[in-house]
Amino acid sequence: MHKDFAAKVSSSATNKRSARKRPASQSARKWRVALSAMKWRRFSLRGSGRWLLAAVAGLFLVWALAGDGETSVASSAITHEEWIGAESVQEAAADSSWRRELIKPGDAAAPVLMRMGYSRTEAYDILHAARPVYSLARVNSGHHFSGRVGAAGPELYYPIDYERVLYLSKRDNAWKAELQPRTAFSRTQAFEGEITDNLFSDAARAGMDDRTTMNLVDIFAWDIDFVRDLRNGDRFRVLTEDRFDAEGRKIGSVIRAAEFINQGQSYRAIRYTLANGSTGYYTPEGNSMRKTYLKAPVKFSRISSRFQLRRKHPVLGFTRAHRGVDYAASSGTPIHAVGDGRVVFSGWKGGYGRFVLIRHVNSTHSTAYGHMRSYAKGIRNGARVRQGQVIGYVGMSGLATGPHLHFEFRVNGRAINPLNIKRNPAEPVPAAEMARFRAEVEERMQAMTVGINKLAWS
Ligand SMILES: [Zn+2]
User: Fold this and answer.
1) From the CA of 1, how far away is ligand 1's center (Å)?
2) Are residues 302 and 397 in the same domain?
3) Nearest CA to 3 among 398, 414, 408, 405?
4) What separation in Å is there between the alpha carbon of 404 and the centre of ligand 1?
5) What's the pTM value of the predicted model, to 2 decimals?
6) Structural domain count of the chain
7) Which residues line ion ligand 1, judged by CB < 5 Å?
8) From ligand 1's centre to the CA of 34, what distance in Å?
9) 393 and 450 co-located in one domain
10) How many CA atoms are closer than 13 Å to the CA of 207, on its beta-carbon side?
């Protein structure tokens, strides 16, 4: 898996030196893989159970490499965008006469409207009409406009949030704007399950859809390393709320509360909207679920869960010899910065191959990412990165016998066990709101544990 591990294996062999000085070129990689597999097999014939294990692992790895071409896995990778947002909103396309335009990062409303076919003048007329009701001076990326020319004239929707939609219509040559409630119907559901096989299928068996499962993973991304730390017998409970419009089309789904018991440790999260309007997930004590560092630099996905279970090859943890944590993942899997910081090194670094080093806001902390296949756009020395931002893609550059990410957490430049890192939570629920917060916690926890299935008009 990694140079330290490989070195450890070969150091027990008769010719230590030659094993260390393996050729590093790409073309030699296949040979190296075959070679190390042969070595491991030889050990197993000779000896102890430990080497037998290593041999089996090595063969698994070779088989894994042979069985899965890079492209086939990478192209089928499911990505989802709410690393932080943990909610999904799907606007049902009413019919094909509606034209829908997504707002991209950095977009302003006018260019989006112009992409939809409105002239510049018309676009500004729309913004002007909207202003008294809802300002479109700032629009959120990921949101969208949908518009059409109906029987009575052009009309346009801008869903503002979970509850409100801005409706614009042109009648008698003038645009008119109004705010409309977005939902007519809500459904609360509680789900409960246990890990027996893999999170996605266990969650599906409990009745959850994949989006909800991914959102669940996102909510606990600061506490649980879903790629490495899931175990059979882990349990989860989830309370969701789905919203529907007057025609019964689903317009959104959020997790209201969730609990995940990982290796005997319980983590709970409540969705709560502060008096200032911002929504987030909090522990029942009122601490933010967000913390300085994400638990893992690789995101758990349907692909990675299958990958981990099928392969069962060794994924190394922190030891004195290894000094990092390895994440087995298919080539091309996105690698995320675990915290805010600045790239201090991005380039080839010996056995690490393509390597990125990030210095975090607390300047004694840095994280290192090795064996990348490639860097993400904009990742270069001096670049600022945000928590969760994609910095590169899993590969096997440098001394690696299979695609994986080698991850290190360093304090004052020395690699330490990531388990020992303090992850300070973001701002808690303000003291002034604690009474209201506690009441919501109580209600949610009860709903989640009693296992209600509630349908309600809102
Ligand atoms: Zn490693």
Assistant:
1) 6
2) yes
3) 398
4) 8
5) 0.64
6) 3
7) 2, 324, 326, 406
8) 19
9) no
10) 10
